[in-house]
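WARN retry 2 of 3 for item q-0093 after timeout on previous attempt; input resubmitted unchanged.
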Amino acid sequence: MNLRCPIRTIALGILLAAAASAEPAIRLKVTAEIANIRQKPSISSLIVRQIPEGALLEASRKDGEWYLVALEPDETGTTSGYVHESLVLPLGEQAAPEKRTRIVERVTAPRPKPAETAPASIKDETPAAQRQTPPPPAYAAEVETPAVAPLRFSLVINAGLFSSAIDDLDDGAQGLADYYGYQLGASADLSVTPFRLVFPFEAEARIPIGGRFALTIGAGFVSASKTSLVTYDTTGSTSTFETTPGFSVIPVKVGILYSPVPYFYAKAGVMVVRAKATYDYHFVHDSFWADWTGEATAYGFGAFGALGVEVPLGSSFAFILEAGGQFGKVSGFEGTNTYIDSDLKTSTKESGTLYSYELKPTSLDSFFLVFIRSKKPTEGGVANARVAALNLLGFGLKAGLKLKF
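OK item q-0093 returned
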């Protein structure tokens, strides 16, 4: 008895059944500006990846209105996720079977002759599938608008490098150095190094408020001081002057962020500032020495603006690079000045306001000074006295890390 034919027939049948049961891969093209890939087929599920418009995806199956697509593994190990059908377009022959079915239904459905007019009762009995386009699924109203990539709540921590314009504190240190040189009749380079660069640190929360807008709330800290040593060239004696002006600022910022395209944003807002101004002057001439130290605080307002870009580092992290600036002035510093020299037994203190003024020993000479005084300076040889200010103007770059939720 020959068993080869039955065996070949059975094997061929098994192969055909396996081929028929295998589900072909579904090729998809992203038609939205940003397509959210979610962990589960639900609008409330966690977003595991965001795919840009025009990207090609491959789905293994479709669950209702969601495609299960394969992903390149990331740092979390995620290799698959679900994308809604409103954000992608099937490619190739995936939609052909449904089209062919609708065509067969239209061909096989009874058609009235051209000369006949179908009564109303017959029109009412026409199947709904042939009379009107099926309504969109109820879920469509909950799906993200494909053309807009929604902002997410996020936290940003950054640090940077800012140019600084302190003005009065720098000018006061230089003025006192020049005044001592005038008294000593010294010829030397009396330049005091001004503030140029500061290093701010900031933390910021970004809260979506609709569309591509977000509310930003942040706080920061910057502190800096600059020490300069001047040596006077005097005959038969040694004289030096060391100055260390300094300041610290704690700004609290509130602003609006706008992201016109993915990974780029602009923001602007206002800030409330708590500032502290300090100075430390130390003069030595032979065996005589004198010290002035002062510390005062004040509150003020300012404004800021910035442009930034984001570089995604995964579904939850991004690198931030931001360029911007700020402006404003803080005045009305209140604090205490302490003075002591080699002839005094104890130090003397004077509480009051930080003033800037010109000291004019002659009609041709003028020196700009900054000290804390109990009242506005009006003594002889003083002119143009006013309340000193801290200039908040600055421009620079910041870089940091963004955590998205």
